[in-house]
Amino acid sequence: VKERGKNNYQLFTSEMQQHFYRKMMLEKQLRTALDNEEFELYYQPIIDVKTNEIIAMESLIRWNNEVLGQVTPDEFISVMEETGMIIPIGKWILTTAIAQTARWHNETNKPLKISINVSVKQLLESTFVENVKQAIENASFDASYVVLEITESIAMYAESMIEKLYALKKQGISLSMDDFGTGYSSLSYLNKYPLDSLKIDKSFVIGMNQDDENKALVKTIIAIAKQLDLKVIAEGVEGAEEYEFLAEIGCDYAQGYLYSRPLPVAAFKAQWLSIN
Ligand code: C2E
Ligand code: CA
Ligand code: CA
Ligand code: CA
């Protein structure tokens, strides 16, 4: 027993060491990633459930590093948040996504909205509202086509945060609550924050046709959203059965592999904008 305990202990520390080492590597490589132009934005279409047409796209960051290969955002975003690197990189994301969409507006006759993920750490920055305004002005873009995706974690910062959200709304920007249903917060923020839409977290949507509880949850979220005059986007729509159920219960928009994976610029243009 003693022997096993010792081995478990060693296993545990070596796992911790590996985890620590990995994080150090990520941090080190992230420091130069922006200057080395290692980041890229992918775009995933958001589809109007009624018309089956694309109405918007979400920008999703990708990181290609020579040493580490492709690291998933779920792994490196938290490191960027902990180290504060999310501030300059978040600025780059806003500028790039807005400039890209502005170009697409000029190249097509169907203007789509751009939905951009924003970390709570960015929102906490005193210059955030001004940064967004600058990015929009620099691209001569129309703010009404900008959607910022925020998460329930903003609930921890209550009052000052609400003012900022109103300042963004005043500029004509839309706000969407991402990963809805997964946070710790209560439903009370839904009418406290100036939201335009909710994104139902993909954990409820993926495979929901085999799961009556998830179906009930999705149906209830849509009913609540309707009552509060919020649009609903279901993410993680992978199958036609899920799409059919969403259409039946009045979900407004859908996003997921059923339509498309997130795509790099060239592929997105060819497949969703029909331009080269
Ligand atoms: P998220 O904002 O909830 O983004 C949706 C994630 O679901 C994306 O993962 C997307 O590729 C994936 N997805 C889309 N459709 C499907 C589907 O049908 N099935 C499944 N299984 N997955 C689907 P991704 O790109 O790996 O991003 C992970 C997370 O990293 C994002 O979750 C978001 O929290 C964060 N993230 C990504 N890009 C950015 C960014 O530019 N800024 C910030 N702050 N966070 C970002
Ligand atoms: Ca998102
Ligand atoms: Ca999400
Ligand atoms: Ca997420």
UniProtKB/TrEMBL annotation:
The molecular function terms in GO held by this entry are:
cyclic-guanylate-specific phosphodiesterase activity
Where in the full protein does the shown chain start and end, and how long is the full protein? 118 to 393 of 393
Source domain of life is Bacteria
**Record organism:** Lysinibacillus mangiferihumi
Residue stretches making up the EAL domain: 23-276
UniProt name for this protein: EAL domain-containing protein
